[in-house]
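Support request, priority: normal
Reporter: lab tech (M.K.)
Component: structure prediction queue

Hi team, I submitted a job for Rap guanine nucleotide exchange factor 4 from Drosophila rhopaloa yesterday, and the status page still shows it as pending. I've pasted the exact input below so you can check whether something in the sequence is tripping the parser. The sequence length should be 944 residues. Please let me know if I need to resubmit or if it's stuck on your end.
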Amino acid sequence: MAAGRQRWSTQIVAGSDLTPGVLLLRYRRHSGGEEQMAPTLGATKATAGATSAAVKRRRRLERGHMPRPQSTAFEMSNKNKELMNDIFTNCKLKNGFGPTVQASAAATSPTKRPLSPDHPNPALPITETPSPAMNRMGWALRILLVADNSSCLKDRKVSGKLIRKCAPGTELVDWLVNLSPIVHTRAQAAGMWQALVEEGVLAHVNKEQPFKDKCFLYRFRLDEEGGTAAAGVPQAEDLGAANEHIREGLSALFQRGPDATLRMILRKPSHERTSEELELVFEELVHIAALSHLSTSIKRELSSIFVFEAHAQAGTILFNQGDEGRSWYILLKGSVDVVIHGKGTVATLKTGDDFGKLALINDAPRAATIVLKENNCHLLRVDKEHFNRILRDVEANTLRLQEHGKDVLVLERVAKQRGQHSAFKYTVMSGTPAKMLEHLLETRLGQSVGGMDPFLDDFLLTHIVFMPVVQLVDELANYFHCDAHEDAQTPEDREYIINFKKRVIQFMQKWVMAVRHAAFEEPSVCDFIEDLAAEVEADPDLNEETSIVHNVLTQMARYQEDRNQNAGQKWKLPPNGQPICLFSGNATPSKTVIRPDDDIIFRVYCADHTYCTLRFPMHTTAELIKACAADKLQLNRGPEDLVLVEVKSNGERSVFKDNDVSIPTGLSLNGRLFVSVKDHLDALTQLQEQEGPTEGVDIDLEILSTKELAYHITLFEWDLFWAVHEYELLYHTFGRHHFGKITANLDVFLRRFNEVQYWIVTELVSTPSLSKRVGLVRKFIKLAAYCKEYQNLNAFFAVVMGLSNMAVSRLQQTWEKIPSKFRKIFQEFEALIDPSRNHRAYRVFVGKLQPPLIPFMPLLLKDMTFAHEGNKTSLDGLVNFEKMHMMAQTMRTIRFCRSRSLGLEPPSPKSEGEVRSYISSFRVIDNQRVLTAMSQKVEPTRKL
Ligand code: CMP
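Reply from support: The job had stalled in the queue. We restarted it manually and it finished. Here are the results:
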């Protein structure tokens, strides 16, 4: 019984089963409990004199002599009135024959219970047929019983009805106690008889009671069946054989007694279990490995609700994949196969293993079918209501699912988010891509109506890291066509398959919801959606899904239309500022997303500063650009000798990898692209124009309304932010060359941050007049305040960082003239951008804001990098999904920020057109050395 290590019974160390063995008797610690279970008829043997009587009996047994009947029922009644009262007053009622059966008793009458394992009945056998050993033991006991006490097993009339060859439990116990010295207590004897009941060798005459040391009547199977064995007084040779058998096998029956008693208790409804019985169960639960992590009080609670289930036949299905989870199981004996649709048997669970809590904890359908691998499997079961009450919140933290001996999914218990109806659930920590997808489709779709399951959302946002789109589409198509190879389908199979198809459709819908147009950019996805739509329309069982599919198709068509309109979009990279869209079919050109096949026009220089102008799709690799530029610039070198390199305004060089894409947008503000011989990188110098604007600004900033500036900066940046796809953060973090995907929209948005920051510095250090500089500083502090008010935190950071730049902060004369009110505000702003404690001040502040808002993008990228560099992508061959979750959280921040459209109240316009064109491209110096030198020039360092 004990799953894992020990047996229920520890009394005897003897041969197993019904084989002869040495009897070494050891008393159970809870023998007191057994005493109480026994009825009051001098049930326990008097210890004094017992040994000599036992020795005599044993000798008789060994010699093949029948013991003389110890007492008749009548004599016994004289000895013990209580027992007889019990017989006469209760027997009729309890046997269920009498007319006086009470309604309440009838309601809980075992016969009313279905015989399915859902409601096990301890009066019934747990095997289909008795084992040969138990059969023989029953035969031998019966022979001896009849020979010993012919009046015990007789026809009896109960409530006018004749019951053939039956005996009261008490007499059977009396006889067995006297039969062998190994049987010390009545409870032990009762357990031994119950072991026979369990196998159907003995049964309550009305199949309503397990074995009880009471007046209930029991009958041997042999007598039920009739036949020769049942008839008459035993022959001498039978007697000899029976004696021999008992001598050899009784110890094994004795050993089975406690187990049988426990199984009997565990098959009773909890309210029928006495406190002694619960104590017995509790003591056994202590030895079950699957419960070792639970506290004593929980094990005590479990003692009353554990149900024992026995299944006779290998091949029995305990539950099916997709079923509602109703119970948790521990395997006590035997083994089960874990079978998954389309995969077959993925694992075999053995004695001591537990299964089935995944569906309970996650309120999800069963992830696998459980099929018994052997005959006569024994299980302990906890039903859902009890599981939820007792175990759900204390269940083990980690759950590992294996297939073919290897971990495929590791789940961990986490606190549920608010709004979900229970406190805890398992979430995926790591897994193989395919198993994670299966887990999603099997258990996370098709039930919840509300919002997106976080695991599903994480998966959809990050799968490109571990499962390329083409593979995902393939897997989904396989799932959708899971019926392709199954000819004959039962209605249940069909229902399962239809449900599964529905889940694939739902997955598709959620995918499109989560990643929007990124899904439609993949031809394999579009083909899949179209195939799916055709199949859904052709299948009447999927009628309800047609609207979902049509909706997705409409979105796809809209995207494709938009794409066609904007086909041939062209961009130009100016010497300064943002790439300019030269052509776009978009009605609102500002909201133009840069697409991989958009062309961009840009220059590539060589060491002598001659250049060529190229036009390439955005997704063109550095290798191709390099080769083409070398050709145009007539470098006459093979591609292996050349590199494509950015020279920054400060002369720094940064070489591109051959497989890098979206090169032009990835340049720094005043950076320039060069093609160079590998060994001559040192010869590359920056161009004069990279220093920054030579002529002064052609607009008087002073006269522009600060609020209007902030407003238009925010509108402009909102559009840039809007164009960034969450995936670009992944490409940026893992390296776009890994995906062959462009990060152009993110590049542009980040470039804008630097542009604003350096614009502030450039403006201040190129303003020679002190009073004008003071006016500008005040204006920029106000600008920061407006950006904050408009929740454009990206621009807010850029402005405040610009004002904190060393070239500006050193302008002592300027700062001295700034009114203290402004200085104080600025200090508060500086505190907000303070990077200490991982930007805590900003995080707290932004955490309170509602969308729409423009976040400080560099911090989101820092979070992504932190998650990437601090965590491996793969753990022991499994995808580290915790890392994916961390990254998805950051990606979700972006989604949250844009979850409401920007509807700012426009300030009363003064010079709208002028402001708009001014803020769309600032002319900046981004060379810190130059900026510091200019700062020195306008305010030379005071000599002390
Ligand atoms: P549940 O989904 O409740 O029901 C089926 C059970 O099979 C599941 O919980 C796990 O406890 C168990 N199981 C064991 N191995 C696997 C596996 N590889 N995939 C799915 N379920 C498994």
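The chain is about 45% helix and 15% strand. Confidence is low (pLDDT under 50) at residues 1-116. Let us know if anything else looks off. Ticket resolved.
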